[in-house]
Amino acid sequence: GWAGAEIVRSSDNTSFAALKSLTSQTVMGYLEGSGPLPAPTRGDVMDFTNTFVVRVNEGDTLSSVTRDELLNDETINAAWVNGELLQFQTATLIGTNTYRISNLLRGRRGSDVFFSAPLPLSTQEGFVLLRTGGMTFIPVPNSDIGRTRYWKAVTFGQRLTDVSSEEYAPLAVNMRPISPVNARADRDASDTVISWQRR
Questions:
Q1: Do the Cβ atoms of 84 and 119 come closer than 8 Å?
Q2: Can you count the helices (H) and strands (E) in the chain?
Q3: Contacts of 199 (CB under 8 A, 6+ apart)
Q4: pLDDT per residue over 40-87, tens digit each?
Q5: What is the sign of the dihedral through the CA atoms of 20, 56, 162 and 24?
Q6: Separation between Cα atoms, residue 4 and residue 23, nearest integer Å
Q7: What is the pTM of this model?
Q8: Cβ distance 9 to 136 under 8 Å?
Q9: CA dihedral over 160, 163, 164, 165, signed as positive or negative
Q10: Please, are residues 77 and 108 in contact by the beta-carbon 8 Å criterion?
C-alpha cells in the first residue's frame, strides 16, 4: 500500500526543500549471524568460501544469476552492506524472507577500502539491493561536502512534522579517484622514480 515518498533536505532542521520523489522501492533487509565476514585477500576474484545470511522485508525477494552474468555486468545483484559495495551470484532461500548469500565479488567500485575491518554480521547492519527502481541519485553542491544536513523521506499523505530527520554529512566519495595499485619505486644514484597503475 506504499504509494511513494518525497525526499526533502534542510540545513537547519527547520526549513526543508523538496528534492525528488520516489514511487518504487528496492529490496532491503538486515544481516543475521554471529561472526564477522572475513575480509578477502583480494577484491578482484570470486570469493567461494565466505557467505552471509540476510533477512529481507516481507514481499521482497532475491534471485541468483549465472557466473557469466555476474562477471559481465557490475550492476547485477549489487548490494550495499556496511559501506561496502559487493555483488553476489547465489541467493538461496533458507527460511521465510531469509536468504544465504554466496559466491561474492567484494569491494566493488573502490569500496575495498572497507576491507580493513571485517564485515560484521549482525541484525544492526542493513542490506540494500542496488538497482534503478526504488533508488535515486541526489547531487549536492560542493559547499555541502562535509557539512551536516538534515534529510527526510516523507511518504505521500504524511505531514512533514510526522517524520524524524536523519543527519548526514556527504563526503563525496563518488568524486574521488579509486586508489592506484602496483606502486613501485625505482632508485638510482640521484633519483627515485615512483610509478603505479590507475584503476
A1: yes
A2: 1, 12
A3: 110, 178, 179, 180, 181
A4: 766 678 889 888 899 999 989 999 999 999 999 989 999 998 778 899
A5: positive
A6: 4
A7: 0.78
A8: no
A9: negative
A10: no
Tell me which DSSP letter residue 14 carries: S
Whether residue 30 contacts residue 126, with contact meaning beta carbons closer than 8 Å, is answered with yes
Indicate left, alpha or beta for 83 from its phi (over 0: left) and psi (-120 to 50: alpha): left
For residue 86, list its beta bridge partners: 79
Q: pLDDT tens, 117-151?
A: 666 666 667 899 998 788 888 888 899 999 999 99
Secondary-structure percent of the chain, ordered helix, strand, coil, rounded to 5? 10, 40, 50
d(CA 50, CA 52): 7
Contact 77, 88 (CB under 8 A): yes
Strands 149-155 and 52-56: unpaired
Which grid coordinates belong to 13? 532542521
- How many angstroms separate the CA atoms of 149 and 141, rounded? 12
Residue with cell 619505486: 185
Give the residue ranges of DSSP H helices in 10-122: 67-72
